[in-house]
Amino acid sequence: MVFMRYEYPTNSFPYKISKRLNALSVPRKDFVDTQDEMPAYTATGTRKSALNGQTTDRVNDIAWPWTRRLMVIKRMYKRQFSQERLERIDRMIEAANGTLYSKLANCVIDLKKMDFRDVKKKKGWTESEWKKHMDYISAVAAPKREFKPPPVQRGKSMPLEALLPRIEAMMVRPDYKCYKRMSQEAWYRDPVKVPPNALKYVITERTKKLAAPRAMPRAE
Q1: Which of 23, 33, 59, 130 could form a disulfide linkage to 55, CB 3.0–4.6 angstroms apart?
Q2: Domain coverage including residue 105
């Protein structure tokens, strides 16, 4: 069993504070820039530790842009980029197309065909689907219907003289049946009390034989 140490309650905070909360409430030490052993940067301004760090496959897959977006960029800047840069984009397309997230998003493209027309092609709605969609929008945009309960149909009013017999009957105190306790009934028998003959105990020969200890058989 672990015993926690508590701080004593104060006037501003009259409750007990656990040791863990006390440790969490201590502010962290401020970072002091002493310019000693600072992280090294490359010529482009990237930290070298970031380049040497190891990332997981999940982070690498998420970092890749969408495959279709890379293909659109390659088509738009096909004449402006150099051949080396276009080859680099092709490698990025292959890497982004083979990730698990592309398969789950159902956006994997057949790179052998490289059909760029499928990039901008979108599935259109039919007339029935569009009509169903507009009907749903109009139903949602309509004001909310208020279902008020029907008005209470009251009967014809009666004079006070006709209601007096009913009022007087309601004013009469009702009769209640009083039940006796079980111990006050004539047929009640106290379970604690026993007849006097039950206290008289006569020891017989049969009782002595039953009460006598039995001899254990001796092993030969």
Answers
A1: 59
A2: 56-120
